[in-house]
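Narrative progress, year one. The postdoctoral researcher (J.K.) led the effort to move from monomer predictions toward full complexes, under supervision of the PI. The following entry was the first complex the group processed end to end, covering 1019 residues in total.
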Amino acid sequence: MSSIGTPNSVSLLAWTIYLSFAGALVQALLPKGKASLSRWLALAFAGGGLALAVQGFIAGMGQGRTVLVDLPWVPSMGVHFLLAADGISRVLVLLTGLAAVAGVLFSWNIELRTNEFFAFFLALIGGVYGVFLSYDLFLLFVFYEIAIVPKYFLIAIWGSTRREYGAMKLALYSFAGSAMVLIGLLAAYATAGSHSTGLIDLAHANLPVSFQMWCFPLVFVGFAILAGMWPFHTWAPTGHVAAPTAASMLLAGVVMKLGAYGCLRVAMGLFPHGMDPWGFAFAGIGSWRDVFAVLAVIGIVYGALVALVQTDFKFVIGYSSVSHMGFVLLGLMTLNQIGVTGAVMQMFSHGIIAGLLFAIVGRIVYERTHTRQLADLEAMHLAKRLPFAAWAFVIAGMASMGLPGFSGFVAELQVLIGSWKANPWWTAAAGIGIVVGVAYTWRAMQKAFFSDAPHHAHPHEAAEGNHALAAITWPEVTGVVMLTAVSLAVGLYPRILLDTIEPAVRALLAGGGQ
Amino acid sequence: MNGIPVLTLITVLPIVGAAIALVAGKHARAVALITTLVALALALVIWTQLPADGSIGLIEKAAWAPSLGIEYKLGVDGLGALMLILSAIVALMSVDAAHRVHRQPGLYFGLVLLLEAGLFGSFTALNFFHWFLFWELSLIPAFFLIKLWGGSKRGPAATQFFVYTMAGSVALLLAFLAVFLSTGSMDFIGLAQMASTGALEQAVTAHLGPITLWLAIGVLAGFAVKVPIAPFHTWLPAAYAEAPSPVTMLLTGAMSKMGVYGLLRIALPLFGAQIAQIRTPLLVLAVLTIVMGAWAAVVQKDLKRTFAYFSVNHLGYCLLGIFALAVPAAGAAQMASQQAALNGVILQMFNHGLTAAALFWFVSILQARSEGERGIDAFGGLRKPAPVLCGLMGIALFSSLGLPGLNGFVGEFLIFRGVFPLAWVAATVSILGLLITATVILTVIQKVFNGPLPQKWATFPDLHHGERMALAPVIGLMLLLGLLPQLIVDTVNPTVVNLLAHWRF
C-alpha cells in the first residue's frame, strides 16, 4: 500500500469526516430549546470542516495522491479503513466544505427541532466527505449509504411540497442505484479473487474484458442515478422541490456529485475496458461509452427544455440541475484530458451555483413570499421589494447560464472542447442545451423579479402582496457573497482548480493509475 | 508606457467607479462624471503613446490558464485606441445627458460605468476568452438599463435585444471553440499570423474537416447581430426607442462599434479568405442594410425610431467598406482603394458614434421640455422660441446627413472613394441610401424647427447655460473633425496600412 503515496500535512483532511460526525453527535445530544446554540455549533463544525478542506487543498497543491489513513478493518476480507486524496478528491472536499457552511447559513431560520436538523445535516456532510476520500470500496460504499439516510429524514421532516412522496422517491431511487453498485462491486471482488477491497488493488487485478463489459454499465448506471442521468433523473426535481432549502442545496450541490464521482472513480476507474467498442454499432452507437454520452446529451437538452416550461420557480432550478449534471456525465464520457477535467470543474461549479440558486429561491424568496409559483411572483415586483434577492439571482443566473467570468463557463467550455474531440455531434446537441439554458434562466428571472405585470393581477396575491417582506438577514448575505465570490474567482482565475485537477485526471486516464 | 499597465487601468477604473456609484446614492452622477472624465483623459494619453508604425502596442501580458489557451493579453493599435476615445466620449456624453435619473441613481450610473468597462475591455483584449468576457459583460448592464429605466414597451424590447445578441454570441463561441480545437490558441495576433499564411485553414481542415467557411459564417453571425446587418437588425429599433435616450446614446454611439470592431479585429484577420469567397452575398446584405435602413427611416413617426434606422443605415456604409475591400490578390491601384475604404470605415465608426450619440442627446433634451414627446409631428416652429437648441441640433443633423465641412462627410466620402473601384454596383445602389436619408433629415428639420409654432410650445425653453457648455465641445468636435480629419487619419492610416499588409483574402 505504500506505493500510493506518503502521509503528510494533507492527511488532516481525514478530520473533515470525524469532525462532521462529531458535530452530528453533539447536535443529537443537545437539549431541546437551544436553537441559537445549535446554529452556532453547526456553523462552527461546518466552518471547521471548511477550514480543514482549505488547508488540505492548499497543502496538496502540486502533489499527487496522498494516503491519509490506512488501518486494517476486516482483515479476513481485506477491508481497510483507507482514506486517500488526489486532486479530484481535494477539489470535491473543498466543495463539500463550502456547501456545508452555506447550508448552515441558509438554515439559520429553522425553528422546528433545530438540533435534530443539524444533526442529520452534519451526518450527511460527514458521509459525503467520506465518499470523496475513501480508497477502499467497502468503506466508500458505507459512506455512500450513510449519505442517503439523513437525506430522507431532512426532506420528510423539514420539507414542504409533497415531502414524504419526494423523500421516499429519492430514497428508493438511491437504494436501487446502491443495489446495482453493490452487485457490481461484489462481482468484481469475487472475479478479481484478490484479498483486498482497496480501489488500487482491484484496479490492478486485470479483470477480464468480458466481465468489465457487463459490470461497467451496471455500476455506472447505479452511480449515475444519483447524478441525475436521464432517464433516471425523475427523483431529482421532486426531491429538490420537496426538500428544505439547505437539503436541496446539499442535494444539488454535493449529493449529485457523489454519483458523478462514483461514475468516475469506481465505474470508469475499475472497469476501463467496459467502455471499449462492442464490435458492432447500432445507429452510430457502438459502445457503452456512446450510450451514456447520448443519455447525457439527452439529459442536457431535455432538462433545459423542461425547465423552460415550469410554473414553479424551484422546479426550474431542479430541472436545470439535471441539465447541468448532463455536462458532467458528457465530460466523463469524452475520456480525454480536457473533457474529464471539465467534468470535475463542472461538478465543483454546479455545486456552488446550484446551491446559490436554491438558496435564493427556497430561502430568500419562498420564506418571505410563501409562494414559488412564477405567476404569483410576477405580480409581486420583487426587484423593488427584495432588490438583494433580485440582484443575487441575476448574478447566480449569469453564472448558471455559463457566461464568461463565472466558473460555469470554463467548465462547460472544457466539456464542449473535450466532447468535440470525441464526437462533434455531442457538442452540437449540448450547444442547443446551452442556448435553452440561457432562455429558461432568463425567463425565470424576468417572471420572478423583473415583471411589469400590474399589481394584484391575482386575487391570491392581494393578501400576500401588501405586507412588507422581512428584511434580508446577515447569514443570507454572507452565504450569497461567499458562493458568488467562489464562482467568480474560479471563473476569472480557473487555474486555482485546474492546477490541482489536471494532474489527477491525467493520472487517472493513464490507466492502472487509480 | 514606462511599465504602467495603462490598458488595465482604463478597464478597471469604470469598474471601481461603478462600485462607488452603487453606494453613492444621489451623488452617483457626480461619481460617474468624474470617472468618465478621467477615463477620457486616459484614453487620450493612450492615443499619444501608440507605436508609430501602426502595429499593436502597449501590450500587457500575464499567464492566466495556459492549458486552455487563455492568456491575459491586452494591446491597442490606432483602431483600438480610437475606439477607446470614442467610448470614453460617448460615456461622458451619456452621463452628462442623464441628469433626470431620480429612480435608483446609484444602480443606474453603476450599470452605465460597467457598460463602459465592457467596452474598454473588448476594445483592448487580444485573447478570445478575455474579449468574450467583456463582450458579454457589456450586454448585461445594457439589458438592465433598458429593462429598468426604459419606456412603456421596455420588457419585450430588452428581452429581444438580449436574446438576439446572445444567440449571436453562441455562434461566435462555437466557431472559436473549433478554432481553439484546431490550433490550441485563442490569441488574436497569433491566429491572424496563422491565417495570413493559410496555416489556420489547414489546421482546421486537418482537425475538423473542411468547415472553415462555416466558422467564418459563425463569427460573422455574432457580429452581424451586434452591428447590425440586415436581416439581423430587427431587435434594434425597439431597443433604441424603448431605452432611455442616454442609454441609446451608449448603444448606438459605442456598443454598435463593438460589432464593426470585431469584424476588423477578428473576422477579417482570421477568415479573410473565407469572407472573400462569400463577398458578393455579404455585399448584397450591406447594400440591403443601407437602403432598407434609409427607407425604413422614411416612414417613422417617432424621432428615436427615425434616428435608430439612421444608425442601421450609417453602419451599413462601414459594412460596405469592409466587405468591398475583401478582394483576393489586390494590385497596387486596388490596394490604394482598400486603404481609402478602410480609413473611411474607421473614421465612419468614430463619426457615427459621435453624431448618433449627439442626436439622441437632443432627443432627450426635447423630451425633457415636452413631457416626453418624441413624435416628429409633435413639434413645430421651435426655432423661434429655441434658436440655439435648433441651431446646434441642426448641425448634428447635417453631420448625420454627411454635409462637407462636418465630420460625417469625410468617412462616407473615403468609403465611397474606396468602394467604387472595388465594387461599383454596390456603391452605386448604396448612393440611393444617401439620398433617402437626406430627404428624411430635411423633413425632420422642416417639421420640428420650422413650420407653424403650436400654441403650447410658444414658451419652449431654449438651451440653458449648462446645456450649452456641455454640448459645445461635442458640436465643436464635429466641426473640427470635418475641417481637420487628419487629426484622426494621421494616426489611423499607419494602422490601416499595417492591417491590410497582414490580411490575406
